[in-house]
From TrEMBL:
Its EC number is 3.4.-.-. It comes from Cohnella lupini. It is an enzyme of class 3 (hydrolase). InterPro entries: SRAP, SRAP-like. One of its GO terms (biological process) is protein-DNA covalent cross-linking repair. Keywords: Covalent protein-DNA linkage, DNA damage, DNA-binding, Hydrolase, Lyase, Protease. This is Abasic site processing protein. Belongs to the SOS response-associated peptidase family. Transmembrane segments: none annotated.
Length: 221
């Protein structure tokens, strides 16, 4: 997963597919979600599975903004391991963007699942407190390996059963949780070229997800 993704499901579709009990934030379809923005997330609060929002990108004391957590090393950092045990969420995603090198330039491509219009990416989160004890939740998504011959991390996916376990606050066994996290084969995805303007975080229209002819995309640069 690069640093852009989309969530284009209607709210009714999202609540049904993810069995959401409570919508706690305003929701709108998003076409070009970027780091540091507030993003829709799903978390378990008491008995309810809730649609909420969090800042995309951790601000840990030991490093820079982190929008990805690598599956292979997540257990090696105490900070991340603690979140894995206690603070888990799901990031619903309709597709994500990657950039492929084509000659001397890079072209933008969108990656979608072949059978799922929206899929579940596991996330972990933390809550930052300001001087007045106001809470600011922030999350990162879990990835494994690279996507489609690029250096962009490939997100991990959760099926319905795994998502139930992932969101269960009573489950704290890191070994059990890590067994849920498996990168799906690239064959499960489809890629297609999109407008190069998706690189601009201000470009937030349905044009972002429209498939285009690569030659036309290069002509617009």
């Amino acid at each position: 997963m690069c640093n852009r993704f989309s969530l284009t499901a209607e709210l009714s579709e999202l609540t049904e597919d993810f069995r959401i009990d409570s919508v706690r934030v305003p929701y709108s379809r998003r076409y070009n979600i970027a780091p540091t923005q507030q993003i829709p997330i799903i978390q378990q609060i008491g008995e309810l599975r809730c649609l909420n929002q969090q800042r995309w990108g951790l601000m840990p004391y030991w490093g820079k903004n982190s929008v990805h957590a690598n599956l292979e090393t997540i257990g090696e950092r105490k900070y991340l391991r603690s979140m894995l045990m206690k603070k888990r969420c799901v990031v619903p995603c309709s597709g994500f963007y990657i950039w492929k090198q084509e000659g001397k330039s890079k072209a933008a491509w969108r990656v979608v699942h072949r059978t799922k219009s929206t899929f579940a990416i596991p996330g972990i989160f933390d809550v930052w407190l300001d001087s007045e004890k106001n809470e600011y939740p922030m999350c990162t998504v879990i990835t494994s390996g690279s996507a489609f011959d690029t250096d962009h991390p490939l997100p991990v996916m959760l099926d319905e059963r795994s998502m139930d376990v992932w969101l269960d606050p009573e489950e704290k066994r890191t070994e059990r949780l890590q067994t849920l996290l498996r990168a799906l084969p690239e064959a499960d995805f489809r890629t297609y070229p999109v407008t190069p303007f998706v690189e601009n975080v201000a470009w937030e229209t349905p044009d972002c997800i429209a498939e285009i002819v690569p030659s036309l995309a290069l002509a617009k640069i």
